[in-house]
## 1
Amino acid sequence: MDLFLQQLTNGLAVGSIYALIALGYTMVYGVLKLINFAHGDLFAIGAYLGLTLLTTFGLSQYLGPMGVVIVLAVMVMGLVAVVGAVLERVAYRPLRQAHRLSAVVSAMGASIFFQNALMLVYGARYKVYPHDILPKNAVSIMGFEIPLVRLLVLLTSVLMMVALYLFIQKTRIGTAIRAAAIDQRAAKLMGINVDRVIMIVFLIGPALGGVAGLMVGLYYGQINFTMGWMYGLKAFTAAILGGIGNIPGAMVGGLLLGVIEAMGAAYISIAWKDAITFMVLIAILIVRPTGLLGERVADKV
Amino acid sequence: MKKMSVFMLVLMIGLLGAGSALADDPVRIGLMAPLTGAWASEGQDMKQIVELLAESLNAAGGINGRKVQVITADDGGDPRTAALAAQRLSTQKIVAVIGTYGSAVTEASQGIYDEMDIIQVANGSTAIRLSEKGLKHFLRTCPRDDEQGLVAYQTLKDGGYKSIGILHDNSSYAKGLADEAKTLLDKDGANIVFFEALTPKQNDYTAILTRMRASNPDVVFFTGYYGEAGLLLRQKMEMNWPVPFIGGDATNNPDLVKIAGNAAAKGFRFLSPPVPQDLDTPEAKAFMESYRGKYNGEPGSVWAVLAGDGFRVVAKAIEATGSEDPGKIVAYLKNELKDFPGLTGPISFDAKGDRVGDLYRLYEVDAGGKFVLLP
């Protein structure tokens, strides 16, 4: 039982990061029907920018650990959002009317560009976040210890996801995003500026990806210019698992994926961890082709 | 006056031509390295080191009065890219090529170089099979996996551990080493309680560590790379699990300590050929001085330094034989070169082109995060 609970928290912490990244995939897909393959690299950019900001401004001299994290998170979100918006403007908007495959190829090109740009700017070696930013204490819950940072990662992700969900459901802009996701032309006829909606989606998605990158850097300490690929792949899987295009789906998919991985490693085989994960994905897609929370989209496309 | 200088020029060219037909034609040596991709840090170190050595060789007069020109190609750490890089290098009139790092990558290029009669001196490709194919022009400055497996077995045996966990990362190198050590340990009837693989580049290994902890090993032998090793050490400490870790030679990189932090890395041991920082030879000292002078730091890993050794033995062989004939150079390297003072200790090659001698040492990380060579 101990082992089970331990693995559950392990899985939830990884899963919440997958979920944050998955939100970016799913939002873009929802509105544009485009898989933004460069999204994983935006996440890596977030991790690197966080490190640069942390080391150049020496924030930890003026603020407590929580203050540092909050200020960093806000700055990283802002910067990565700008990168995301520029990406949309440069790589995707000119192809808006083109065949969908062209946009996918453009996305892959952007991914390769970002990855190599990171390597050229920061070098190919692993980069390491300072070790003394976050407190190292563990919290004792129901008799076993969980590192405090691990709980914070989980809490932050859940908070962000809830905030995003409310934003999409309750605000005017959120309504516009949902409208554009259902039918872009009809949305245009209703007086919604679809180009602006897409721009907003490309601000929010990358901002969340960037903050996930920052959390990975702060928590695991080690970042690498190729890290976007692995996390991107996992988050993309999570988005599909939950039903791509669906925001609560991305959250459920991410958390579930993390837990399946941890449990697969714990009770079946470590080496087969990824194989098990993808087997579960296939099984779910056979039963529910649109993902766990995906709506029926048979009449679309 | 003008006529005179033209006359002098003609005379000089004539003299030079008579002295040595190729005097201002440089000796061309290729370098194939992973300058991009997942191993880019290794490849860029290789390039820096070989270029540094070529510069100082040229400053000291070159090989028999001829300058050396290094021609670099990027193999991307990927076999397909390597095959293209090998084809491109083959057309550049190179005598020899230094590299590369990954075994699978070297394997993809071996045949191409051999067909073109170009000598290849690999620096990080430790897979056993590479030198078992009977290729005439293949050598390597790194040791083979079976040697490391033997040393690992010896270390684990001498440690007197009752139960052993072995963890690899499914790469052909790490799995090969893990299998090698397991086979030897099994023969002895050692108690291996855990033998599994992790997936590299995933950052979170708590699930694996939790599982491994349940099988309660006395020691864990990890055969993968330093990035994962650093994270394992760090996450192991966060779990308050005091089990000792021993690493293979791919963990020999100062970044390991940066990733793990001093506290978590303390007491970690690994097997590796010695790095020049730890050697007392004049060659190693001179090299370290010029490296620090130019790049302001320490070389990342021993593998890049072994590329430097590859360059130095090739230059030595061309100088000694006074020829660019690959047959003569290989014959010299395999038969006549004995205990050449390398940057990583004495270098000799056997008939297969493998480096001879027991190269492996045991290192331990001290409280300040330094790698200390154990006696």
## 2
Amino acid sequence: MSAATSPVHDMSVAYALEGLEGIERLRFEGHLVQCAECRGDVEDVRDAAELLSVGIELAPPASLRTQVEDLTRLPVAAAAATEDTPGESPAPARRRRWFGGG
Amino acid sequence: MTRNLPTTGSPADLFGRVEYLLTRCAQRDARSLVHLYDLTAGRVLGLVSRVLGPGPEAHEVVVEAYAALWQGEVEIPEGASLPWLLGVAHARAVARQRTRARVPAQRSGDAEVRAFPPDRGWLPGLEEDEREALAEVYLRGHAVGVADQRLGWAPGTAVSTLHRAMLHLAQLHNGTREGTPDGDRHAAGVRAGHPDGQHDQREVLA
């Protein structure tokens, strides 16, 4: 694996922050399949991205809460299917190598 | 600041509550969805509103995000908490923003977004270019190539600046940053650490 311009591993942050699109995004996703380190970095950065929305909160209007309450009154067709099939995705027990704890 | 000590009102406490409520939502507990909303909507709306501009479209995406997890459109991974929820909403907002950007008739919305800049106090410990890169990509939803153009940077600069910004944020967050801020020197150190494409940035942070 080689990158023509920037080191491909450096793109984990851009990818994790939704900064890649089109062919660039597809190419990096191809790299992720074979690079566990980058998969870990992407997970770390996605966790850490929570820090980027601290201090920019907005008070939601009351109508939004009503709409969310209304969601619970709607029949959910797809939910039963997902409940019956417990997650089979591997969830590696590692978090925040960049960001403390872990 | 740490998330490892779950005291009342601390981020760890918030993360724990969100994680619990997400688990309950997956089990179809309606009250938990509303509690989850009450606990997180300000954060979610604040973020989505930066990407799309404040107003009805942002409101729509916020409701869509809670609907997606409630209706099973997205699977809630084990251990998911606030970062996951914010990520779901952010990805939707960015997708919407990019679709809108491709439609010329709606480009006027971009001016509205630009009129809603990050606060001066947003990520105060970072370098100005780090803040700019994060604001362009994360808060305004632009792809890195577009960010480079908008900021008048050489291609690839946004990618490397984002990388440096998150490493810098990690250092500030972990309280391990030494000396005066010097992002370029730090980034150079990181790159020098893996000339063969190895991942040594965590050793820098250790």
## 3
Amino acid sequence: MSNSSVRYIVIIVGVLFFQLIVLNRLNISQNILPLIYPIILLTLVRNINGSLLLLIGFILGYVMDVFSNTGGAHAVACTVLAFLRPFFLSSIGPMDMGSDQIQPSIISFGIKNFAVYSFFLLAIHHVVFFLLEVFSFNNFPNTLLRIISSLLFSWVLIMALQFLFNGRKR
Amino acid sequence: MINILAILKRFHFQILFALLLIIGLGLTIQQKNYQRTKFINSANFLSGGIYSSFNNIEDYLNLKQINDELQAENALLRSELISSLKKINGEYYQKDDTLYSQKYVYRVADVISNSYSRPTNYLTLNMGSNDGIIEEMGVISPSGVVGMVGAVSDNYSTVISFLHPKTVISCRLKSSGVSGLLKWTGKDISEAQINDIPITTRIEKGDSVLTSGYSSVFPGGIYMGHIKSFEKDLESQTQKITVDLSIDFSSLNKVYVVENLYKSELEELNKKTAQLSE
């Protein structure tokens, strides 16, 4: 196994642990459930095979579902994210990239581009997940509040993680 | 045939997406509709093991609170002992009376994972079929009903929390004895509702709400909370009661799994009655 794939696996396990053992168990509030694990899908290399990305997304989401008893809500949300990622990458990604082997991050994309890219994909993921979690359109304003507040928390946390791990190299 | 292969090759990304989407939606719907089917859940070996090892750490932090809770319950049980009852009119109470036989068996389990802030909530316990846990057993804590066992694996089990839209518990009001179904409101974790109480029933604020014991899952007389408020609905001639739950779902550590030894007999009887009335 190459060095970079070992690094990927360490990151995936670390992020999942943080999500499941800390964020999920905190039960912060009924309206706030920060989901940071999509960062794994957001930061996979730019030229990754689309079908592989879909499969990784589905499996990652399913692991979350198994741990949090949500059936397939995470799996569907991640699959949708993985499906839409290439379109976002081609439209928001920077033009002057040397190599396609590059990982989306605040360094390679620039803070502004990465912020926009992660916000929109995360928003789609959250809308799908929280709708499937409630599984009804009753009390939709409440669900919307849940989506927006959770999204803001997740997004800020993901950006903070990016600065934490990439900040020094800039 | 070549055409089909060509289409498959060209659209394999979209086809895979559709396939995964359908599987995912299927899993979601299955879990929403059939709570007790054996879909893979947090009772499995891996997640159960991880949760349980982290729970060991948390247990130490909560020891004092657990102790306090158990002591309070001990005091309550002690007050119900024969020795602390006064004999009335020289009547004699005997504990191991042949008139009584054991009906409920309790097992103590650790809560290793607990969600209470989602629209549908589950708990994971560190006991499974190896410890004699089976599906649809009741789960209670010293301060009220927690939920009902959903799926069971060898060493772990999941509990469908009372904080779940599908959970209903048969309850009665202490003063009037009128019974109804207690259901979570879906918002506040300390609030539940009883709908469809006849309008003629007199309801008093602060009255206790107890389990009725009509179901084969929970023993009767477990204190659930007190009446916070009630409204009359003149149109349907019913009243809606809001109950302040005594149980705090955010701090569940030890729970009791209740086994009703007469459950199968009761269910068989119900089945026969249903057949007769057909």
## 4
Amino acid sequence: MINIPVEHYLIVAAALFSIGLAIAITKQHLIGILLGIELMLNAVNINLIAFSRHDPEKIGGQLFALFVIVVAAAEVTVALAIILRVYGHFRSVNPDKINELKK
Amino acid sequence: MEIAAFYAFSGLAIVSALFILFSKNLIYAAFALFLTFLGVAALYVLAGADFLAVTQIMVYVGGILVLLIFGIMLTQKTDREAVSSTPNRVIVSITRQFSGFIVGAGLFGFLSYIIAMSNFKMTGETNISRSTLKTIGVKLMTSHLLPFEIAAILLLVALIGAAYLALNRNPAHD
């Protein structure tokens, strides 16, 4: 079985992380920003799992990635609830238009 | 064979991520994110993390993505005439596109420079023929028991908090 070198995983993860960051900066929509953040969390998980391949006895990287997935799930639920409240207040999801705490 | 699968799935993930970046329609972006998650799950399988790949598909594709699509549908614009011609349009200004491209390309260049310069000395045995399910289960119940319980409490708190936030407590605004 041919082993894929770990650098290839790292390059793919770096590309996905950069694209996710560019999405989070570019999109003027709160849910678009969330899409970018999810992509960045996934890219970090690829790194953890690629290194965990060389440690099959105590797979710390995979366990870390598992907890990252849990935190991402919790984060996206709370973020969507906040976005729905913000949309109820301001009737907009453009982060540039949301500039006060109370209307 | 394995190499070809690796490049095919990483190409799928990166191309659909680029589609999210350039897409103007947010629903299309969410479906492209689905493809990206599938590609990343395939990369997990190729790295020997079978349990993580299934978790990725179940949690991200089955949960988070459906939630995001619901969020997109619930937060649509109020100007109806713009909606009918260009649904789910995301406004993207030129300056933001420029700065996003600069930051993303700069970060990718920086990271790939570091990865090219680094020289990893891998000592461990790469064993990817065995399932990691038993190891993960044993580790979660012995050495990682405290983070496991904290994650359970975190999920409970997030569930209660999200339900409390999403409740419509002030009907004067709606």
